[in-house]
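TA notes, week 10

Several of you asked for a full example with nothing omitted. So below is the full record: structure tokens for the whole chain, then the designed sequence directly under it. When grading your own attempts, check the secondary structure regions first.
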């Protein structure tokens, strides 16, 4: 099996990038008005991407011919940690995307808060 290829490198990166873009749509309310609510939703999105990445890497290792089920049965905590660290390492690709999504959503929150303040002032 190739070390780098479409199925084991490009496709997982594209899938995790797509999930990093889509997860905040599921975890953050569309008209959120506070930065703390936004932060809770974004941390939840981060957790979803990490878990999905761990599952993806588990599947990739199984597809490469490794007996993932036997390894998980022998050392469940160690194997879960292994796949979570692989997902975290892939964060060098999807992490900046998630950070930019967070930044953009934070700007929207501040804009909505400013508009609400202006509407309260107008007679």
């Amino acid at each position: 099996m190739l070390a780098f290829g479409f199925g084991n490198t490009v496709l997982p990166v594209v899938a995790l990038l797509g999930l990093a873009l889509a997860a905040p749509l599921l975890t953050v309310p569309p008209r959120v008005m506070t930065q703390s609510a936004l932060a809770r939703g974004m941390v939840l999105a981060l957790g979803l991407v990490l878990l999905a990445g761990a599952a993806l890497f588990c599947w990739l290792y199984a597809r490469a011919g490794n007996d993932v089920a036997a390894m998980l049965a022998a050392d469940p905590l160690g194997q879960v940690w292994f796949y979570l660290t692989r997902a975290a390492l892939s964060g060098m690709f999807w992490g900046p995307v998630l950070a930019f999504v967070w930044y953009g959503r934070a700007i929207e929150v501040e804009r909505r808060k400013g508009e609400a303040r202006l509407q309260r002032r107008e007679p």
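The chain has one domain: 18-23+36-121. Use that as a sanity check on your answer.
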